């Protein structure tokens, strides 16, 4: 029998954690750590405030440390920490699904819970394939994404996504995948405010893919209403409407990835609502729980659910799911978060702040190396000219300067992406944009 002895404390060093999407070597030589968060700000271990210009990773829409969410998680943990949802259930998951269905676009009232945006993307693709097979159209196996699209890091979402660095390390991906062109037209749309005027015709590339592959082989098209991780690409006016019409014409499901655009980011509950286009399937995560507990979800039209469930011969209808689907703590966090959104009208606050936000981010036009600015809702993208032979280096230095000056921004390539919590005030917008402007000037060379 082993003797129980007093535990020897281990040093709290940086070695063990292999950080995601990070320059591990640089970080561990020059760490930037966050120790706590409250309201609009993070705080470093030595107590320095870092104003959050990114809502964490596009996810803390209600700000940080919201007492209502914390207490809901604590109450649920004290009652029941975990319950399986395979052939069993618990009331909180059903309530959370009903709350989500109250705010999704009309008709998308069946909700499948996941744990992340990546899992939501793969779940949506599998549901699309299962739907067509249930209807006797098993030949529809092809999935269409878009260049520069981001749908997480599962093999399904990565295959349909179109960001090269996310794909090139991993060899062959899913078969039967094709891509639409992206919608970024800087020669025609540079410094657009809101939706660009030019580019709706890019949706017609789907007709070309139908002609190439045959409509009877295409299951679904997945796009982000506003592409975020690739650098804030806002859809041209009429583009999504055109895509919707082509999908309808050929019996193709349209999937919106709203992991970033959901829960008020565009001044509405979902981007589909703001943009006036309803998909067949909608993915979400991030803002669903204000990031307090990992959770994602997929909302589908009732007809899709009915085809899969009622079309099955008996027993399990969809052989898919996760151990933590509808986890009690996540479900409790989701309910509390959605109540916060309703009570404080966070989408309305975002819509009211949007004009001021737009003026602020576009005030950076004319600064050294700023080649484009894009915005929609409470999202901003400031594109910088890359340094010769060193793509991404300029924006990375801007990020570091902003952090050291007390403001958190996000960079992707040479694009600075902004997405503050929806509780942001005007003086905080001024500080975010002012600090960013100073950093851009400092990296002019």
Automatic annotation (TrEMBL):
<dbReference type="InterPro" id="IPR005814">
    <property type="entry name" value="Aminotrans_3"/>
</dbReference>
<dbReference type="InterPro" id="IPR015424">
    <property type="entry name" value="PyrdxlP-dep_Trfase"/>
</dbReference>
<dbReference type="InterPro" id="IPR015421">
    <property type="entry name" value="PyrdxlP-dep_Trfase_major"/>
</dbReference>
<dbReference type="GO" id="GO:0004015">
    <property type="term" value="F:adenosylmethionine-8-amino-7-oxononanoate transaminase activity"/>
</dbReference>
<dbReference type="InterPro" id="IPR049704">
    <property type="entry name" value="Aminotrans_3_PPA_site"/>
</dbReference>
<keyword id="KW-0032">Aminotransferase</keyword>
<dbReference type="GO" id="GO:0030170">
    <property type="term" value="F:pyridoxal phosphate binding"/>
</dbReference>
<comment type="similarity">
    <text>Belongs to the class-III pyridoxal-phosphate-dependent aminotransferase family.</text>
</comment>
<dbReference type="GO" id="GO:0009102">
    <property type="term" value="P:biotin biosynthetic process"/>
</dbReference>
<dbReference type="InterPro" id="IPR015422">
    <property type="entry name" value="PyrdxlP-dep_Trfase_small"/>
</dbReference>
<keyword id="KW-0663">Pyridoxal phosphate</keyword>
<keyword id="KW-0808">Transferase</keyword>
<protein>
    <submittedName>
        <fullName>Aspartate aminotransferase family protein</fullName>
    </submittedName>
</protein>
<dbReference type="Pfam" id="PF00202">
    <property type="entry name" value="Aminotran_3"/>
</dbReference>
